[in-house]
Design brief:
Number of helices: 5
Shape: elongated
Number of strands: 0
Radius of gyration: 27 Å
Largest sheet: none
Structural class: mainly alpha
C-alpha cells in the first residue's frame, strides 16, 4: 500500500517539479514540444522493440521452447509504452530506460527468480478423478433434424 501511495502521489509531484524547472529554463512552448517529441520518438522505438521481441518469441515457440524472457520483455515494453505516453520527463526517462534491451534483460534476471510458476493439470491435484461427463446431442440449426425411431411409437 505505501508503494502505491508513493506512486500516485510522489510521481506527479516529481513531474510537476520537473515541468516547472524545465519550463523555467526553456520556456513553455519548447517544454511542451519536448514532451511531445519524446512521446513520438518513444512510440517509434517501442514499436521496433515490440516487433523484435515478438519475432524472438515466435521463433522460440516454433522451436518448442517457452518464451518466458520474451513474455517478460513484452510486459516491460507495455509498461514502457504507458510511461512514454504519460506526459512528463520522469516517466519518459523510466520508459526510455525500459526500451534498452540489456537493461530489460538485467531486470528480467533480477525479477525471474522471485516468481514461482505453479501449474495444475486436471488429472492431478485435489480434484483429480472428480470429473463429471455430460452426455447430450447437438443439432445444427441449418440442417434438417432426423427423427430417431422411438420404442413406444408404432
Amino acid at each position: 500500500m505505501p508503494f502505491v501511495l508513493l506512486l500516485f502521489i510522489g510521481v506527479p509531484l516529481v513531474e510537476i517539479a520537473l515541468f516547472i524547472q524545465v519550463g523555467d529554463e526553456l520556456g513553455v512552448l519548447p517544454t511542451v514540444a519536448l514532451v511531445v517529441i519524446t512521446a513520438v520518438l518513444g512510440v517509434g522505438l517501442l514499436r521496433w522493440q515490440g516487433f523484435e521481441t515478438m519475432t524472438r518469441a515466435r521463433s522460440r515457440m516454433e522451436a518448442g521452447e517457452m518464451p518466458a524472457r520474451e513474455m517478460a520483455e513484452g510486459f516491460m515494453l507495455l509498461v514502457a509504452g504507458v510511461l512514454l505516453m504519460t506526459p512528463g520527463f520522469f516517466t519518459d526517462t523510466v520508459g526510455f530506460l525500459l526500451l534498452v534491451p540489456w537493461l530489460r534483460y538485467a531486470l528480467f534476471q533480477w525479477v525471474a527468480p522471485r516468481f514461482v510458476v505453479r501449474t495444475q493439470s486436471p488429472f492431478s491435484g485435489p480434484n483429480a478423478g472428480s470429473h463429471q461427463t455430460f452426455e447430450g446431442e447437438f443439432y445444427h440449426p441449418d440442417e434438417p433434424v432426423q427423427e430417431k425411431p422411438r420404442l413406444d411409437k408404432k
